[in-house]
Amino acid sequence: MAAYAAVVSLMNNIDNIQNHPRFSISLDKKQTESLGEKLDFLLDFIEMNHSHEFLETEIASAAYAAEDVIESHIVDQIHSGSISSLDLQTVILDMDSVKEKVVIFKEEKEGLLKVHRQYSTSTTSSTPSITGGGKSTTTMVGLDEELIQLLDALTGRQSSLQIIPIVGMGGIGKTTLARNAYEHGLIVNRFDIRAWATISQEYSVKEIFSELLSRESSESANEQQLSQELYQSLIGRRYLIILDDIWSIDAWEKMMFFFPDNNNGSRIIITTRLSNVAVQFGSSSYFSKKFLDENQSWKLFCEKAFSQEEVCPPEFEEIGKKIAEKCQGLPLLIVVIGALLRNLKEVAKCYVNDLIDRNLILGSWFDGRVKYSTMHDLVRDLCIKKAQKEKFICMMRFRDIPLGVKMECRIAFQEKIPKENYDHELFFHELESASLARSLIGKRGGELSLEFKLLRVSHMIGFSLENIFKHVNLRYIFKPDDWRTTTISYKLPSSISLLWNLQVLVFPFIDLVAPPEIWEMAQLWYVKSISIYLPEPHSSCDQQDEDEFIVLRNLQTLKKVVNLRLSEEVCKRIPNIKILHMEYHPQSSLRESDDTQQGGLLKKMTFPTSLRKLELSNCDLGPEDLRTIGSLPNLVHFKLQGEIIGNEWDPVEGEFICLKFLEIHFCHDLIYWNADSSHFPVLEKLVLLGLSKLDEIPLGIGEIPTLGIIVLDDCSESANISAMKILEEQEYLGNDDLRVEIMFWKKEDLERFKEKAKQFQCFTSNNLGFFS
């Protein structure tokens, strides 16, 4: 897997360089194409030969070396501020050497297989039968009109036997069209007999007859006996025969006499790739399959690649449409590529779940999915030993001087650098020799003032804030808590935009003030801080050149941004944002207008429709604000910490249609919540905290079929009682899937409420919990 990851990483790197919106790195087109061809060849080999350890090591080493050359050139170019071309000839020669070894291995392997086949004493073969109507219908995109026409031909008034050819190139959907007609309810009920056989270029008439008769070929029955049996089974019956993938008229001429014309509306469908074959069947016309148009191709791709929702996530739409376009309207190619992309995601999830099921890793579950995972110390030790054996990572212990780290790419620190009786000078000298280091990971460490030219991952305490941003090749920055850090607020330097491939920026214990240049960092994917102040981006209208207008298409998570005005300009820059946590401080200018006093804080804001998770802190919302949020089409998680202006909330049907999680904190003035099951139709979890005046949770909330849990923390007594009434009613109706949890800050409040709660039948229910 290391070789696979290395090659894919190199390919992605080259693609990022060629399409980077800000930095111009000159690559020779012919050299890039040559390198790409070699990488494709090696990737195919890896996918087909997982067990060749030596060659995989060679491939991984060559790919890593190529990345070193390319990224080293980029870093030098950024620091110098000049543009120079990168000669990939050395990299190509190295890849050629590895490719030559792979070719020799493949030739030797194929030679051994050939010898094995020559001396093999027996072979087995089987042809899977597709006869019968039990298979599920294949998805048809762009075929509805064709299917209707084919059904008309199959059920038309002509009583004589009709032969209906379907013509088109391989993969264009001939078999799919025939299959959907074959399994259509109208056809199933109309014909007494339906049978299917696949012909292909090399065929056996005996095997075809056996397939049509829905039985295994028998040595005791010859071709003549089978043909007579087929004829007798069809005589006098209305039948539909599908002969799929005929390549020559000869095959038909050997079978045609055994399909009787019963003058009762029988039909034969023939699919073929060859037009000259189709015209020889004597039909007045035939179905000629056409390529899918652009819209049909895109629809089919979405159905196959994103099967559950059949909607492409916004961040993948641009590349997804390019993939669909490259398929040039060929349905089979679209189906294969779409299914492959979906399978990769599903396989990854299956691997993680399998490890959890086998207790090799421990999953922390939240809302029905794994939030994060940990592993037992013994399993961790095993993983470390395996990683070190494959030279994937170097685990450093400070009691030993880290000798021999010169060629290490990933270095992890397991303990704190000793303050006394330790040769710090020798330690830093050895660490400085790790010029190829790409990852430095550790929760503890001394003060590191070293620079690592190719560093991609920094998860260290030791780096000073100033030193971190000198590493322009960084992709991931995580600054853990550090008692030495006296900075409460830190202004990110404008030079942060030189980090050409930065994707993750996490400062969980520092307030950040971002410069305007942060809107130029197109590779950003995840940004999180205890608070981060973002400036307004420059208006795109002021930028004459469209190339200067950079869109952060990769940005999906932004936590916890302070006093951000979500203008149309901001939304243009973050069109694919999925998770957004915003906080508004009392001194914010956004709170000073009269509109906000009436709950119009969000009145002049625009929310990206891609949002799936929205959290608002210190934010007071009025009815119009709530309608704005409720109209977001993809919102599944909404958390509000603030006030709902006024004492009443009247949701509107048609809002919050996808919301699964709703959490409301400290809306002290809210008394009446006039909602029912139609207002939150797929809600799964409801959390209410500090609603001291809430009269009740509407009984209709309990009728939401997906609702699994209601949590109340320090809410009014009447709200707590209403939750128990909901539970009692649902259990009476046979719903045992709903759970209610009621929490109190003081133990005496808990005991006082439990005395009152004893009057309810659900008091002893296993689905009711009290906590303090």
TrEMBL record:
One of its GO terms (molecular function) is ATP binding. The keyword Cell wall biogenesis/degradation does not apply. The keyword Nucleotide-binding applies. Keywords: ATP-binding, Leucine-rich repeat, Nucleotide-binding, Plant defense. Residues 149-309 form the NB-ARC domain. It comes from the Eukaryota. Residues 343-383 form the Disease resistance protein winged helix domain. One of its GO terms (biological process) is defense response. Pfam families: NB-ARC, WHD_DRP. Belongs to the disease resistance NB-LRR family. PANTHER family: PLANT BROAD-SPECTRUM MILDEW RESISTANCE PROTEIN RPW8, TIR-NBS TYPE DISEASE RESISTANCE PROTEIN-RELATED. This is Uncharacterized protein. It comes from Erythranthe guttata.
